[in-house]
Structure formats: C-alpha cells, structure tokens
Amino acid sequence: MSFRSRYLSPAAVRGMTRIGDILCPGDGHFPSFSATGCVEHVDIPLEYAPAADIGDLSLLLSILSYMPQPVLQWVVRQMAESHESSGPLSSTFRQLDFGLRGIIFGLYYSGRTGVGYSGPDTHTLTGYSVNRVED
Amino acid sequence: MYDYIVIGSGSAGGIMSRRLNASGAKVLLIEAGKHYTRKNFPQSELEYSAQLFWGGGIEFDTEARTAFLRARCVGGTTIVNQALMDRFDADALDDWKQRSGVDFFSLDALTPWYEKAEANLKLHTFGSEERNSNAQKFCDASDSLGYKWKYLRRGMDDCALGRGNDCVGCLGGCYRDSKQSSLVTSIQPALTEGLELRSEFEVGRIEHHSDHVRVFGHHKGEKVEVRGAKVILCAGSFGTTKLMLASGFKKQMPALGKGFCQHPQYMLFGVFDDIMDAWRSSFQTVASNDHGFRKRGFKLENVFAGPVSTAFLFKLYGKEHHRIMREYRKMTSLEVAVRDEPEGGEMSLDNNGKLLVKKTLTDQDNRRRVDGLDTIRQILHAQGAKEVVETAFYFGLHLMGGCQMGVDATRSVVAPDYRVHGLKNLYIADTSLYPSAPGINPSLTAMTLSYRLSAQLLGE
Asked: Among A47, A78, B82, B457, which is most exposed with the fewest C-beta within 10 angstroms?
C-alpha cells in the first residue's frame, strides 16, 4: 500500500481497511471497501476532526490491525449490538461504532475511489446523483 | 470598546447583529467556525460533514446514545438545516409560560414579533406540484389512514426546483443563496453595511464588569481579548451553556446547564418495487399535522438523505448492508421527531473544559418514540413497502435549554428581559433559553425572540 495519510499511521490505515472490509465486504454488485481505494481520501474527514480524537482513533486502529480476523469480527458485532445494550462497555462500543462507521461509510459512499481502482464508483452503483442548477 | 458583541451567528445571532449594526452602533459578530459562502461551500456529504459540524461531524451525549448535529460556520445551523419556518402554537407557549412564569410567552404577545422576523425572510409554502415521490406516498397513505398532514413553509427564494435542481445539496450550504440562512438574510447584508465579523474566533471565557464585559478567546489561533459594553450570547444551547459554565457562573446560578432538551429524531426506510429517487427536487415538502400526534408528543416528517447518511443510519453491515443499499433508489423514508422532556438533560464540563451532555430519555420520551415509530411502520405498510429498514440510533436535533429563561433566579438563568440574572450587561437570546421542547421547529422562534431583544436594546 503506497498511500500515506497525514493523520493515521500505516498500521492504522491497515486497521481501518480491515474493518472497512467487514462492513463493506463486496457482493458482486458493490466492490469491497479495500477494492475501491476510497481509504486514500481518509485525510478529508480527519483534517477537521479534533486532534485528541484522531490520536485515539489512530492508536485503536493500529492495535486492531494486528488482531486476528475473528477478533475484528467480534468487535464489529459488538459495535452493531451496542445500541441495544447498556453498561460502560456498550458506551465505548457505541462511540466506536459512530466513529468508525461514520468514516468508513463516509468514504465508501462518497463516490471517491483510489488510483488503482477502475470499476464503477458507489454513486454509480447506488444510482445517486445530484442536479445542481447554478445560474 | 464595542457597543455590542454578539457571540454566535446562527438564527439568533444573525438577525441580532444586523439590527444592532443598522442602528449605527459599533458591533462585533464573533463566530467559532469558518466563513463560507455560496462560492466555496463544501459540496459532498463527506466534505461538509467534516467541515461544517462541530466534532468533525457529530457529537455525543455521555452515554453515546444520541448523535448531535451542530454546525460550526458563519450562519451556524441555519447553513445546514432545511429552513423550515413554523411559529409555535398555544400549546408550546402555554407550557413555556407555566414553566417559566414569563408573561410574553403567549400567542398574543409574540405574534407581532413573528411578523417582524418573517418580514426579514422570503417564505414559501409548498404545493402539490412540488411533492416528490416520497412526499406523494406519505400524503396518500396518511389520507387512507385518516391522518392529517400539511405542506411545509420554508425560507427560500429561488431553488430552481422547476428547472431540475435537487435541494439535497442544500444540506451542506446553499450554493444558490436561496435558502434563507442567517448568512443570506442578515450577515451578508450587514457586512455591506459595515458590520465587523470575526470568524474562526472561539470564545473561551467571559468576564462581567459593572460597565462592560470582557471576552477572551482564540482568533485563528492567536489569544485575543475584546470588550463590549453589552454582550449577547447567541451560540446555541451547547455553545452558550458551555461558555457560561467555563466562565464560572455555575456557583451563582444553580440552574445553569439544566433543562437540556431536544427533538430526538428516528428515521425508518421503506423499500418498494419501483424507483422512488426520494432525494430528488425538494426532498422535504410535507409533514404530519395531526392533532392526535401532537397530543401524543410526536410529529412525522417526510425526509430523505444522501447515501453516506443513509448507510450510516442502518443497523446492517456486511452483505446484508449491500443488499439494502442496492435498493437505495427504491427507498422512501419517514422520521418521527419526539417532543422530549427537559428533566432528562443536563450539561457540565469535565476537568479539561470539554462539554459533557447527559441526556436520559424519560419514560414518557420512550413511550412517544415507540408510538411514533409504530405509526411510521403503519404508514410505510399502507404505502405498500415490501420491507421496512430499521435504523441503529437517533439524532438529537433542535438543541435547546441549559440557560432557561424564567422569573425565579434559583430555577432559571435568564430573566424575562433576556439579561442573565444579576448581570446587567450580559444577555442570552438563543435556544438555550427555551424552557422546554416545543415539538415544533425552533428556528423561527429563535429569530423572533432575538428580534424582540434587539428592539428592547434599541429602545424601539
């Protein structure tokens, strides 16, 4: 992976890509998160995020990048189920869910792709387009 | 020294600064966010979420159950909202009067002020020809079930809807200057009339003195102090309350930070066999107008969102998520906005000065949520949806309270003359003074109450 983020370490980018592929694995119609290369635009949302949040996110994603796949799948499951549960751990997983899904779905459905991707973007695949009449 | 310093440039701050400036007073308008205009608003969901909102997109309560949306730019939340302009009804104002003891919270007293605030806006009430497929389905299903609905009134000039414009782009700032944000209606005209605006100025603390107020903060990274004979806080429920707490007023004002309320909003999506393209044209033209819903404490709004926001809301991930997102063009959606109770909300600061928002939905709030969501499911099924897609969480919109207005200084922060109790040079004019959630879009009333204070300050 030649892409380098100004805000995330290479390990953190790997961690985000692995979580992204669990959320958006691809299904024949949609490509996987990693296939689109949309992670190459991760600095767009991070440029405006609070510095402390970026530091926490980078550390967490770096740790996750070294975890075996079943652990990552467990983390994502906990994130998804956290909105129905209560307790201190559920609050942590909810924050993680908001943060990671916000960035990952934000990148994936932005329609942006990486330099190595040549397929249709997600705006084309969802059929989303916006007409702007400017006069 | 300025005659007036207005902190915050949204619904309340825009009209306040324009009117004070027009009187010939020396006015400074301060805004923490950047000054974008129609020429350089960020254009994609990814960009505007990050650039125009506090927290880089969303903020949370202490339990991370509610995601709050709060804009950070010149024009405040009026840049990113739908500019829906409703007056409060007697039910909302009676509740305010009862809670606060403030006499002018009545339809009779506020109607002339609503008229004055509205005169500053271009208002448009939608009609049948402007409904998109999502709105048409909502109206038809509501009719079949006997639920009343209405066309929305919106602050807009020329959205070019008849020429194919899609207003969903407006959520990141209106590139036509059609939406009646405070930037368009007040700040841009006031700047041509000599108003001084300092954007990217984050106020950290204020200090009240007998003949002026000192304002301390950082302007584009530099430490700055400015002084005003009078300071009017218009930074919204979170911004104003945080500033009051950071300035050390909690000890003398036990009610400071209490009574935070909102309209928690829950969306459900219906999936159909046919193409809906629910984001097309004006994507929000109708809402419920049912007396029964009002009594039960919720209203329904006909809304939609771009793919980023939609995907973010869904509970699903993996291949199930992809399956649903394939149907994006075939979706409609409805939202229930609950009128919540202020008793469940309180704001404070942590040791680092970060705002902590504690918001527990009360039993009544939860009953209203369940009732509203059940009603949406009923409507979606009546529309003929083949599947109803649930969402994972809710957004806290219309943030209110924290510096409630009232006659009793032990139970409120702001006196009926908008002065902070006991501080003659410090005023609050934004939604933080709201005594409870009205169950109605709060933006027009924020402008109206601010207009009323400006008239008081100008001796009109």
From this structure: A47
Among A112, A128, A129, A134, pick the best mutation site for testing chain B contact (most B Cβ within 10 A).
Answer: A128
Q: Does A46 touch chain B (CB under 8 A)?
A: yes
Site from B325, B327, B329 to mutate, A interface, most A CB atoms within 10 angstroms:
B325
The Cα–Cα gap between B259 and B412 comes to 9
Write b or e for each residue in B253-269: b if 16 or more Cβ atoms lie within 10 A of its Cβ, otherwise e: bebbbbbbbbbbbbbbb
> What is the pairing mode between strands B423-428 and B27-30?
unpaired
Span of A9-18, A44-53, B420-429 with lowest mean pLDDT: A44-53
User: How sure is the predictor about B244, in pLDDT bands with cuts at 50, 70 and 90?
Assistant: very high
DSSP label at residue B265: E
Strand partners, B394: B66
Confirm or reject contact between B393 and chain A (CB < 8 A): yes
C-alpha span between B167 and B164 (Å, rounded):
9
Is the pTM for the entire model greater than 0.80? yes
Q: Do residue A130 and residue B279 have CB atoms under 8 angstroms apart? A: yes
CA distances from B342 to B166, B218, B240, B356 (A): 36, 32, 17, 16
Q: What percent of chain B has pLDDT over 90?
A: 94
Q: Which residues of A touch B156 (CB under 8 A)?
A: none
Alpha helices in A8-87 (DSSP H): 10-23, 33-36, 43-46, 51-65, 69-81
| Interface contact A123, partner B, CB < 8 A | yes
Q: How far is A55 from chain B (nearest CA, A)?
A: 14
A-B contacts at Cβ under 8 angstroms: 134
